[in-house]
Design brief:
Elements lengths: L23 H7 L4 H18 L2 E3 L8 E3 L2 E8 L1 H25 L4 H4 L6 H4 L21 E10 L2 E8 L6 H14 L1 H6 L8 H10 L12 E4 L8 H11 L2 E3 L4 E4 L2 E6 L2 E4 L2 E4 L22 H6 L4 E3 L10 H4 L2 H9 L11 E2 L3 H9 L4 E5 L8 E3 L5 H13 L4 E5 L5 E6 L2 E10 L1 E5 L2 E4 L4 E4 L15 E7 L3
Parallel strand pairs: 3-22, 6-7, 6-11, 11-12
Antiparallel strand pairs: 1-2, 4-5, 4-19, 8-9, 9-10, 13-16, 14-15, 14-16, 17-18, 18-21, 19-20, 21-22
Helix pairs in contact: 2-6, 3-12
Pfam families: CP_ATPgrasp_2
Protein name: Circularly permuted ATP-grasp type 2 domain-containing protein
InterPro entries: ATP-dep_Glu-Cys_Ligase-2, CP_ATPgrasp_2, UCP005522
């Protein structure tokens, strides 16, 4: 499908123009509102976000170091029945991811069985030999996971990618809801929406449940940030504040007496659980990148001795690899004994000669991504690219095919956004946030909906001009 073709599925309106059940309560309220009043509310929301400091950094753009993520007033609504079906598939996938991580760093049964090629992790920078034979406290690798979903039909949800290393965006999910409730309190009395505001409490509880066995009393939780210049610093500070946890940088921590401890006004205090937002390579200069000033020298030794929990576990980035993603149906079945409830998007692995041949012959119709790419960078969207861009990308593929996968250009579902001319459909995706601990899997009802604000665009990333919406799961 080219980007100019009409979408297959409008989440608010049926083909005959009628409003779908999920949106009936909202539409009843919206029909009573004046357009000029809604436009003023849109301006009010922007002011709220700017005052609160909800920004993200754009790397490589000197004139736009900080930007507001555009927020759209029209919520994305999912029925309770749809969410229950989605949740079963999400939980199955996250459990399989954790089992996969444990196996990959232990007996590697999935490799021995021939279900997964050994080359996918032997030459994978995200696979850490330092984790071999070690099981994190509580047996949990992916404490916080973001599963990116797209919709192509009434019951057709597909997994676009997995975010098992340091998934971001949950602060925007929370602030979107708070903004909507502040601006339209009467709306939430008309439509019964499941809450998300308790996510920080649930996150803190889930992390505390993963504390090392040696922990005495209530676990001390800290959020490790690279610092104020990181693109997601706002989120790091927000979550630490909402959890009642400490926000620390590497310079605030040191290994004392076999424990990772943080500097306080009365000396050093042990940290039991570290929610790190620093990539593996910068976590410990004695183990990984010796030039890193962001991590804690010696933290990996403390970790492997059972003295601290690091969330998410080092080495989980293997699951973010888009070549690994292409094997997720086999991974789910191998560890659960069940067929995957949530299917993948069809994927061609360019490392395979036959797949590469097909991709090169059909570049103008496909989406091609780097296996370690993120944020909408390093990718080609064939239908919206010029002939020159396609030919330049062809050279990259031929030069390093192992670095790419390709997928069809999907007819992503649309949700309406509020424009000066009224409601207009735009493409969306959804990132539900999943917490995992020895106590089980906890899925926040909703997640972060990202929306492509440009008409016809399929790119929803904020760094590429996308915005966000409040995501509603109806309590029915």
């Amino acid at each position: 499908m080219s980007a100019s073709e009409p979408p297959k599925f409008d989440e608010m309106h049926a083909p005959d123009g009628s409003v779908r059940d999920a949106y009936s309560g909202y539409q009843g309220w919206l029909s009573e509102q004046d357009d000029s009043w809604m436009r003023s509310k849109s301006t009010e929301a922007e002011g709220f976000f700017r005052k609160t400091g909800i920004t993200f950094n754009v790397y490589g753009e000197d004139d736009a170091e900080e930007r507001l993520i555009p927020f759209d007033l029209v919520p994305r609504i999912i029925t309770g029945g749809e969410w229950r079906r989605l949740s079963k598939g999400i939980e199955q996938r996250v459990r399989a991811l954790n089992a996969f991580m444990h196996d990959l760093y232990h007996r590697q049964e999935i490799i021995r069985s021939g279900r997964l090629p050994e080359r996918l992790f032997r030459n994978n920078a995200a696979w850490l030999p330092q984790m071999v034979g070690f099981t994190p406290p509580g047996g949990v690798y992916t404490h916080i996971t973001g599963i990116d979903l797209v919709r192509t039909g009434q019951d057709d949800f597909l997994v676009l990618e997995d975010n098992a290393r340091t998934p971001s965006g949950v602060s925007y999910m929370l602030e979107n809801r708070e903004t909507m409730m502040a601006m339209f309190p009467e709306l939430f009395s008309k439509v019964n929406v499941r809450p998300v505001s308790d996510y920080p409490r649930r996150l803190a509880k889930s992390l505390a449940a993963c504390a090392p066995e040696s922990t005495e009393g209530q676990p001390t939780i800290a959020v490790l940030t690279p610092g104020i210049f990181n693109s997601a610093y706002y989120e790091h500070a927000f979550l630490a504040d909402q959890m009642g946890a400490e926000l620390v940088e590497g310079s605030d921590l040191r290994v004392v007496g076999g424990k990772v401890q943080m500097r306080t006004t009365v000396g050093y205090k042990p940290v039991d659980v570290l929610y790190r937002r620093v990539d593996d390579d910068y976590l410990d200069p004695l183990t990984f990148n010796s030039d890193s000033m962001l991590g804690v020298p010696g933290i990996m030794d403390v970790y492997r001795s059972g003295g601290i929990t690091i969330a998410n576990a080092p080495g989980t980035g293997v699951a973010d690899d888009k070549a690994i993603y292409s094997f997720m149906p086999e991974i789910v079945e191998f560890y659960t004994g069940e067929k995957a409830l949530l299917p993948n998007v069809d994927t061609w692995r360019c490392a395979d000669p036959d797949s590469l041949k097909y991709v090169l012959e059909n570049l103008a119709e496909l989406v091609v991504k780097e296996v370690h790419g993120s944020g909408g960078y390093g990718m080609l969207i064939g239908p919206t690219s010029s002939k020159k861009e396609i030919e330049e990308f062809r050279g990259k593929l031929e030069n390093d095919p192992d670095n790419y996968i390709a997928q069809p250009t999907l007819a992503l579902s649309t949700c309406p956004i509020f424009t000066k001319a009224g409601l207009a459909p735009r493409h969306v995706d959804l990132r539900p946030f999943v917490l995992c601990s020895p106590d089980g899997v906890d899925i926040t009802p909703g997640g972060l909906t990202r929306v492509a604000l440009k008409e016809g665009s399929l790119v929803v990333n904020s760094s590429q001009g996308g915005g966000t919406k409040d995501s509603w799961v109806l309590d029915d």
